[in-house]
Protein backbone atom coordinates (compact mmCIF):
# COMPACT_ATOMS: atom_id res chain seq x y z
CA UNK A 1 0.00 0.00 0.00
CA UNK A 2 1.25 3.47 -0.90
CA UNK A 3 0.42 6.21 1.60
CA UNK A 4 -0.77 9.46 0.06
CA UNK A 5 -2.34 11.36 2.95
CA UNK A 6 -0.44 13.84 5.10
CA UNK A 7 -2.89 12.98 7.91
CA UNK A 8 -1.55 9.45 8.20
CA UNK A 9 -0.36 9.11 11.85
CA UNK A 10 3.10 7.86 10.87
CA UNK A 11 3.60 10.67 8.36
CA UNK A 12 2.45 13.26 10.90
CA UNK A 13 4.95 11.86 13.40
CA UNK A 14 7.83 11.87 10.89
CA UNK A 15 7.08 15.44 9.88
CA UNK A 16 6.89 16.56 13.51
CA UNK A 17 10.21 14.88 14.32
CA UNK A 18 11.81 16.72 11.43
CA UNK A 19 10.54 20.13 12.50
CA UNK A 20 9.63 20.14 16.20
CA UNK A 21 12.30 19.77 18.93
CA UNK A 22 9.60 19.23 21.57
CA UNK A 23 8.32 16.20 19.67
CA UNK A 24 11.84 14.79 19.39
CA UNK A 25 12.35 15.24 23.12
CA UNK A 26 8.96 13.74 24.01
CA UNK A 27 9.43 10.60 21.89
CA UNK A 28 13.25 10.35 22.22
CA UNK A 29 13.30 9.92 18.46
CA UNK A 30 14.61 11.87 15.47
CA UNK A 31 14.80 11.50 11.69
CA UNK A 32 17.73 10.99 9.35
CA UNK A 33 17.33 11.83 5.66
CA UNK A 34 19.18 10.52 2.64
CA UNK A 35 21.21 7.45 1.82
CA UNK A 36 24.50 8.61 3.36
CA UNK A 37 23.16 9.01 6.89
CA UNK A 38 21.18 5.78 6.77
CA UNK A 39 24.24 3.92 5.49
CA UNK A 40 26.36 5.39 8.32
CA UNK A 41 23.68 4.43 10.83
CA UNK A 42 23.58 0.84 9.62
CA UNK A 43 27.38 0.60 9.56
CA UNK A 44 27.37 1.65 13.20
CA UNK A 45 25.40 -1.52 13.92
CA UNK A 46 22.10 0.26 14.49
CA UNK A 47 18.66 -0.38 13.04
CA UNK A 48 16.00 2.30 12.43
CA UNK A 49 12.54 2.11 13.92
CA UNK A 50 10.84 2.88 10.61
CA UNK A 51 12.09 3.63 7.12
CA UNK A 52 10.10 5.78 4.70
CA UNK A 53 10.73 5.73 0.94
CA UNK A 54 8.98 7.50 -1.91
CA UNK A 55 7.29 5.42 -4.58
CA UNK A 56 9.88 6.31 -7.22
CA UNK A 57 12.71 5.80 -4.74
CA UNK A 58 11.88 2.11 -4.53
CA UNK A 59 13.41 1.65 -7.99
CA UNK A 60 16.74 3.30 -7.09
CA UNK A 61 19.62 0.82 -6.83
CA UNK A 62 21.33 2.61 -3.91
CA UNK A 63 18.12 2.69 -1.93
CA UNK A 64 17.41 -0.96 -2.75
CA UNK A 65 20.85 -1.90 -1.42
CA UNK A 66 20.11 -0.19 1.90
CA UNK A 67 16.63 -1.66 2.18
CA UNK A 68 18.08 -5.15 1.81
CA UNK A 69 19.96 -4.58 5.10
CA UNK A 70 16.87 -3.68 7.14
CA UNK A 71 15.00 -6.01 9.43
CA UNK A 72 11.56 -4.83 8.30
CA UNK A 73 9.89 -3.58 5.13
CA UNK A 74 9.83 0.19 4.49
CA UNK A 75 6.78 2.41 4.45
CA UNK A 76 6.15 3.56 0.88
CA UNK A 77 4.58 6.97 0.28
CA UNK A 78 3.71 8.93 -2.84
CA UNK A 79 6.36 11.14 -4.42
CA UNK A 80 4.22 14.24 -3.78
CA UNK A 81 3.80 13.43 -0.09
CA UNK A 82 7.52 12.75 0.32
CA UNK A 83 8.36 16.15 -1.18
CA UNK A 84 5.88 17.79 1.19
CA UNK A 85 7.49 16.43 4.35
CA UNK A 86 11.20 16.29 3.48
CA UNK A 87 13.64 18.96 4.67
CA UNK A 88 16.75 17.86 2.79
CA UNK A 89 15.79 19.04 -0.68
CA UNK A 90 16.82 17.22 -3.84
CA UNK A 91 18.31 13.96 -2.61
CA UNK A 92 17.53 10.29 -2.86
CA UNK A 93 14.06 9.98 -1.30
CA UNK A 94 14.59 7.89 1.82
CA UNK A 95 14.36 8.81 5.50
CA UNK A 96 14.29 6.86 8.72
CA UNK A 97 12.95 7.37 12.22
CA UNK A 98 15.61 6.41 14.77
CA UNK A 99 16.00 6.26 18.53
CA UNK A 100 17.64 9.36 19.96
CA UNK A 101 20.35 8.57 22.54
CA UNK A 102 20.09 10.29 25.89
CA UNK A 103 23.34 9.78 27.79
CA UNK A 104 23.73 10.99 31.36
CA UNK A 105 27.12 12.28 32.48
CA UNK A 106 27.65 10.34 35.71
CA UNK A 107 31.20 9.05 35.47
CA UNK A 108 34.68 10.53 35.28
CA UNK A 109 35.93 11.58 31.84
CA UNK A 110 39.64 10.75 31.75
CA UNK A 111 40.21 10.70 27.99
CA UNK A 112 39.97 13.32 25.26
CA UNK A 113 36.67 15.13 25.04
CA UNK A 114 35.26 18.05 23.10
CA UNK A 115 33.13 20.41 25.19
CA UNK A 116 30.71 22.53 23.17
CA UNK A 117 29.61 25.50 25.22
CA UNK A 118 26.55 27.33 23.93
CA UNK A 119 27.10 27.03 20.18
CA UNK A 120 23.81 27.88 18.48
CA UNK A 121 24.30 27.14 14.80
CA UNK A 122 23.51 23.56 13.78
CA UNK A 123 26.00 23.76 10.91
CA UNK A 124 28.84 24.73 13.24
CA UNK A 125 27.85 22.03 15.71
CA UNK A 126 27.68 19.38 13.00
CA UNK A 127 31.07 20.46 11.65
CA UNK A 128 32.64 20.10 15.10
CA UNK A 129 31.08 16.67 15.61
CA UNK A 130 32.35 15.53 12.22
CA UNK A 131 35.86 16.82 12.86
CA UNK A 132 35.97 15.38 16.37
CA UNK A 133 35.19 11.95 14.97
CA UNK A 134 37.73 12.36 12.17
CA UNK A 135 40.50 13.28 14.61
CA UNK A 136 39.89 10.40 17.00
CA UNK A 137 37.79 12.00 19.72
CA UNK A 138 35.02 9.79 21.07
CA UNK A 139 33.36 11.94 23.73
CA UNK A 140 31.46 15.19 23.22
CA UNK A 141 29.82 17.21 26.00
CA UNK A 142 27.26 19.85 25.03
CA UNK A 143 26.42 22.34 27.77
CA UNK A 144 22.95 23.67 28.46
CA UNK A 145 21.94 26.15 25.77
CA UNK A 146 23.85 24.45 22.96
CA UNK A 147 22.03 23.51 19.75
CA UNK A 148 20.62 19.99 19.69
CA UNK A 149 23.10 17.38 18.48
CA UNK A 150 20.28 15.23 17.08
CA UNK A 151 18.50 17.99 15.22
CA UNK A 152 18.23 16.65 11.63
CA UNK A 153 20.17 19.69 10.39
CA UNK A 154 23.00 19.03 12.84
CA UNK A 155 23.17 15.39 11.81
CA UNK A 156 23.31 16.31 8.13
CA UNK A 157 26.23 18.67 8.81
CA UNK A 158 27.89 15.95 10.89
CA UNK A 159 27.59 13.44 8.04
CA UNK A 160 27.05 10.52 10.42
CA UNK A 161 29.57 11.50 13.09
CA UNK A 162 26.83 11.30 15.74
CA UNK A 163 26.79 7.54 15.39
CA UNK A 164 30.47 7.14 16.31
CA UNK A 165 30.46 9.52 19.28
CA UNK A 166 29.29 9.46 22.90
CA UNK A 167 27.36 12.73 23.10
CA UNK A 168 26.18 14.16 26.42
CA UNK A 169 23.70 17.02 26.15
CA UNK A 170 22.28 19.66 28.50
CA UNK A 171 25.26 19.36 30.83
CA UNK A 172 25.67 22.05 33.49
CA UNK A 173 28.93 23.86 34.18
CA UNK A 174 29.10 22.31 37.67
CA UNK A 175 28.83 18.84 36.14
CA UNK A 176 31.81 19.54 33.91
CA UNK A 177 33.89 20.44 36.95
CA UNK A 178 32.63 17.32 38.74
CA UNK A 179 33.30 14.78 35.99
CA UNK A 180 35.90 16.07 33.52
CA UNK A 181 39.22 14.92 34.99
CA UNK A 182 41.59 15.99 32.20
CA UNK A 183 43.18 19.43 31.70
CA UNK A 184 40.86 21.86 29.92
CA UNK A 185 41.89 24.12 27.05
CA UNK A 186 39.63 26.83 25.66
CA UNK A 187 39.86 28.95 22.55
CA UNK A 188 39.90 32.69 23.16
CA UNK A 189 41.12 35.76 21.31
CA UNK A 190 41.65 37.72 24.52
CA UNK A 191 44.79 36.08 25.91
CA UNK A 192 48.27 34.99 24.99
CA UNK A 193 48.70 31.31 24.29
CA UNK A 194 49.29 30.49 20.63
CA UNK A 195 48.09 26.95 20.05
CA UNK A 196 51.33 25.91 18.32
CA UNK A 197 53.28 26.64 21.53
CA UNK A 198 51.13 24.39 23.73
CA UNK A 199 51.74 20.73 24.49
CA UNK A 200 48.55 18.97 23.39
CA UNK A 201 49.91 15.44 23.38
CA UNK A 202 48.19 14.22 26.56
CA UNK A 203 44.45 13.61 27.13
CA UNK A 204 42.58 16.89 27.31
CA UNK A 205 39.24 18.64 27.04
CA UNK A 206 38.95 21.18 24.22
CA UNK A 207 36.24 23.78 24.84
CA UNK A 208 34.64 25.68 21.97
CA UNK A 209 32.32 28.54 22.91
CA UNK A 210 29.33 30.50 21.69
CA UNK A 211 29.72 32.17 18.28
CA UNK A 212 29.53 35.68 19.72
CA UNK A 213 30.14 35.48 23.45
CA UNK A 214 32.83 32.82 23.46
CA UNK A 215 33.43 30.37 26.29
CA UNK A 216 31.56 30.92 29.55
CA UNK A 217 33.70 33.03 31.90
CA UNK A 218 33.38 30.52 34.74
CA UNK A 219 34.74 27.77 32.51
CA UNK A 220 37.39 29.99 30.98
CA UNK A 221 38.94 30.72 34.40
CA UNK A 222 39.76 27.03 34.80
CA UNK A 223 41.23 26.57 31.32
CA UNK A 224 44.54 27.01 29.58
CA UNK A 225 43.82 29.54 26.79
CA UNK A 226 44.44 28.70 23.15
CA UNK A 227 44.63 31.32 20.43
CA UNK A 228 44.93 30.92 16.67
CA UNK A 229 47.16 33.21 14.60
CA UNK A 230 45.23 35.83 12.66
CA UNK A 231 46.51 38.16 9.97
CA UNK A 232 43.28 39.46 8.50
CA UNK A 233 40.49 41.46 10.10
CA UNK A 234 37.89 38.70 10.03
CA UNK A 235 38.10 35.88 12.56
CA UNK A 236 37.30 32.23 11.83
CA UNK A 237 33.84 30.95 12.65
CA UNK A 238 33.71 28.49 15.53
CA UNK A 239 33.27 25.42 13.31
CA UNK A 240 36.45 26.19 11.38
CA UNK A 241 38.39 27.34 14.46
CA UNK A 242 37.49 24.15 16.32
CA UNK A 243 38.53 22.04 13.35
CA UNK A 244 41.92 23.79 13.22
CA UNK A 245 42.43 23.06 16.93
CA UNK A 246 41.40 19.42 16.63
CA UNK A 247 43.78 18.86 13.74
CA UNK A 248 46.62 20.55 15.61
CA UNK A 249 46.03 18.08 18.44
CA UNK A 250 46.14 15.23 15.93
CA UNK A 251 49.28 16.65 14.29
CA UNK A 252 51.16 16.89 17.57
CA UNK A 253 50.31 13.32 18.48
CA UNK A 254 50.67 11.52 15.17
CA UNK A 255 52.57 13.67 12.68
CA UNK A 256 54.90 15.93 14.65
CA UNK A 257 58.03 14.30 13.25
CA UNK A 258 56.71 13.78 9.75
CA UNK A 259 58.61 15.61 7.02
CA UNK A 260 57.40 16.31 3.52
CA UNK A 261 59.01 14.44 0.61
CA UNK A 262 60.47 16.66 -2.07
From TrEMBL:
<keyword id="KW-0489">Methyltransferase</keyword>
<dbReference type="InterPro" id="IPR051259">
    <property type="entry name" value="rRNA_Methyltransferase"/>
</dbReference>
<dbReference type="GO" id="GO:0032259">
    <property type="term" value="P:methylation"/>
</dbReference>
<dbReference type="InterPro" id="IPR029028">
    <property type="entry name" value="Alpha/beta_knot_MTases"/>
</dbReference>
<dbReference type="Pfam" id="PF00588">
    <property type="entry name" value="SpoU_methylase"/>
</dbReference>
<protein>
    <submittedName>
        <fullName>23S rRNA (Guanosine-2'-O-)-methyltransferase RlmB</fullName>
        <ecNumber>2.1.1.185</ecNumber>
    </submittedName>
</protein>
<dbReference type="InterPro" id="IPR029026">
    <property type="entry name" value="tRNA_m1G_MTases_N"/>
</dbReference>
<dbReference type="InterPro" id="IPR001537">
    <property type="entry name" value="SpoU_MeTrfase"/>
</dbReference>
<keyword id="KW-0808">Transferase</keyword>
<dbReference type="GO" id="GO:0008173">
    <property type="term" value="F:RNA methyltransferase activity"/>
</dbReference>
<dbReference type="GO" id="GO:0006396">
    <property type="term" value="P:RNA processing"/>
</dbReference>
<feature type="domain" description="tRNA/rRNA methyltransferase SpoU type">
    <location>
        <begin position="114"/>
        <end position="247"/>
    </location>
</feature>
<dbReference type="InterPro" id="IPR029064">
    <property type="entry name" value="Ribosomal_eL30-like_sf"/>
</dbReference>
<dbReference type="GO" id="GO:0003723">
    <property type="term" value="F:RNA binding"/>
</dbReference>
Amino acid sequence: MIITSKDNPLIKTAHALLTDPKKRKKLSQTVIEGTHLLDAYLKAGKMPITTIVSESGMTNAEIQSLLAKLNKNPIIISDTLYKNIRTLGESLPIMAIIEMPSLILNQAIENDCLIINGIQDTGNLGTLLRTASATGFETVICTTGTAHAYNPKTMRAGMGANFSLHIYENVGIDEIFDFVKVPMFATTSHADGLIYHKDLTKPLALIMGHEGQGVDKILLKECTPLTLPQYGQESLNVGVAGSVCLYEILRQRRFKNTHSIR
